[in-house]
Amino acid sequence: MRTLRFLLIKEFKQIFRNKALLPLIVALPLVQLVIMPLAADYEVKNINIAIVDHDKSSYSNSLISKITASGYFKLSYFGDSYQQAFKDIEQDKADLILEIPANFERDLVKEGNQKLLIAINAINGTKANLGGAYLANIIGNFNYAVILEWIQLPRFNNSPVIDVASSNWFNPTLDYAFFMVPGILAFLVTMVGAYMCSLNIVKEKEVGTIEQINVTPIKKIHFILGKLIPFWIIAVLMFTIGLFGIGRIIYGIIPMGSIALLYSYLSLYLVAILGFGLLLSTYSQTQQQAMSIAFFFMMIFLLMSGLFTSIDSMPMWAQWIAKFNPVTYFIEVMRMIVLKGSRFTDIQNHFVIMLGFAVFFNGWAILNYRKTN
Amino acid sequence: MHRQWMMYFTNWQEGLNEAINMKQLFIFIKKEFYHVFRDPKTMLMLFGLPIAQIILFGFALTNEIKNAEILIIDNAQDVSSRAIIKKMASTQTFKISAASVNAQSIEAEFRKGRVKMAVVFPSNFHSDLLHTNTASMQVIGDATDPNTATTLTSFVNTIVQSYQKELLPNAKLPFTIMPEVRMLYNPQLIGATNFVPGVMALVLMLVCVLMTSVSIVREKEKGTMEVLLVSPVNPFLVIISKAIPYFFLSLVNLAVILLMSINMLNMPMNGSVLLLFLESGLLILTSLSLGLLISNVTNSQETAMLISLMGMLIPTLLFTGFMFPIENMPLPLQVISNVVPSKWYYIIVKSIMVKGLGFASIWKETLILSGMTVFLLVLSFKKFKIRLE
């Protein structure tokens, strides 16, 4: 135990000594936690629309004013040249084009039906779908108003109506930050833990001080614990600041579930992820190697964790990769406990899986760690 | 006055001559190549894995919502409710799970995390619809993920509406407007069309920054920088030659990434390959300059890596704009996004590969990237300390 204490004192001295590093470890993730959730918002608000009006009738005018008044669309171009409107699409100034054909009003009244052309920039599928749906909705309403103008609909509408009452639980205001803050916090904690831990050990290798430790009677387990514990503490502290400082004060997120449960999962998760960092360090000789390996895994951890895009929508083989990604489980648990108030029985599988990760990573790392080369 | 200016000029010219001493430059570049090739592990990681990532993320990432598990509580069990459930089951969006739960357990199911939405049909659903012409059903979304909740709710609405229309097959109203929708560039709404250019921008930029960010600081840390500084070599040469091997290797990397994304991910290549290559070279230059700057202002590899990986990963991902549209962000963030080089490159790649545009439509983005490169290079020369502290 005494050995471990001295090692811990040494580690903390080293961490606090580096005046450039410490503020970065704390500030980089926390600033990101403040800013990035604001950037992550799927709600499509300002769709730029280019309207080509060949008709210039009272109908086309009223349709256009309905569209611009809806709040979803911003008019980027209005005129009578499709080519010009298409240029706007090419330059990303417009997301969709609405083309109103000549004699729109006359044909609609005389012939009973009329076409409208909508062309959508579909590179980003979600935006295309949403923009198209909003526009179709407005046109539908406009159409209904036109019909009412011309024919008296029967007083008692005899078409069956199914009323869909929808409600949104856990987040009735549909605030996207509620969803992002716990997830981004989980990922930032992961980066601090795994990355810093592996860099720290490899640094000792590169500088050569690890040899000095190797020739002392310090046991392997003490050395490893001495490296894991400081980063475990830093990560827990950062998590606490992130959750209560930033999440609560800036975003108003109050965890619904048990804080004790959340922290016990965090503790276990950090053991697993620090073990992963340790494992990385046993396979690299230089910090550059450690960084490049870490870069690869961090990208996969980030993009295959369900943080930004849903895992269920991925192809089956990719879902399996996500299943072997420890970050997936932590982000899920974070969102479940913080937002939904899930209880232990709801996440017991997550505990078992994380325990498996912890044993696997640490076991492998300890086996692979050599005091002698 | 005039003489003084002349003196400055000749001094500057001499400096330039010294700087373009080709032989010296060549030797330095050779040295840097040795550094890179000596470490095959890093080489493999930095050049093999981006390729794997493009493939992986190109196939896996999508904004679409598919296979969302929904819970159906069918208290009616009649013609109408079954018809609507059948319609839902036939789409790719929903994965319908056991329908035997009672309403109280919805929250418990949500807490377990698998179920994304619950749909409740009241008893007498069909007979209500038949006799009173109205029936109501309930849709409850797990709005912890607001995007999934709203999308799923609107899908259900669409399905219910189409069922409603089926009940009245011949009710065709006069004066109907029929919108004809055309999806430009990506008629099948494939996710890769959006994600491949984005991941390309992300990976290329991060890899280049990561690699050069340690290059100078490593020499500082190891003490070999002293040796370089006391040598008669122009310090600018030292910096420039650091970036050159990575520049060429990144071009090779880029070629492989492009081949893969066109052949394996079926990305369109509607514009000029040469133009895309030149523009990519520009992004690589910008990123390498950024890396050099980080390397110049930090004093340990650990700090440099912290900034270039931990500090840049998430911001680059989000500000490139392929994950969440930049125009949705609050204005200050939109302004910040302008300093992220990959944002401009992402626009360029989309314009060339998908839209098939020429240089005339991307000159502005090109100019911005060039400006950034010059700015970053000048700044890192300025910050480069030729004296020991």
Describe this structure in words.
- The complex is a heterodimer of chains A (373) and B (389).
- By secondary structure, chain A is α/β, with parallel strands linked by helices.
- Chain A has 2 domains: 2-40 and 175-368, no CATH class; 47-150, abc type-2 transporter like domain (abc type-2 transporter like fold).
- Chain A has helices at residues 2-17, 21-39, 58-69, 82-90, 104-111, 125-150, 176-207, 209-215, 220-250, 259-282, 287-303, 316-323, 326-340, 344-368; strands spanning 47-53, 73-79, 96-100, 113-121, 161-169.
- In chain A, strands 2-1-3-4 form a 4-stranded mixed β-sheet, sandwiched between helices.
- In chain A, strand 1 (47-53), helix 3 (58-69) and strand 2 form a beta-alpha-beta unit.
- In chain A, helix 10 runs parallel beside helix 14 (344-368).
- Chain A is elongated.
- By secondary structure, chain B is α/β, with parallel strands linked by helices.
- Helix content of chain B is 65%, strand content 9%.
- Chain B has helices at 2-19, 22-37, 40-60, 79-89, 105-112, 125-131, 146-167, 192-213, 215-222, 224-230, 235-263, 273-297, 301-310, 313-319, 331-337, 341-354, 363-383; strands spanning 68-74, 94-97, 117-121, 134-142, 176-184.
- Chain B has a 4-stranded mixed β-sheet.
- In chain B, strand 1 (68-74), helix 4 (79-89) and strand 2 (94-97) form a beta-alpha-beta unit.
- In chain B, helix 8 crosses helix 16.
- The two termini of chain B are 35 Å apart.
- Classes of the chains: A alpha/beta (373), B alpha/beta (389).
- Chains A and B meet through helix 2, strand 4, helix 6, strand 5 and helix 7 of A and helix 3, helix 5, strand 4, helix 7 and strand 5 of B.
- Strand 4 (113-121) of chain A pairs parallel with strand 5 (176-184) of chain B, so a sheet runs across the interface.
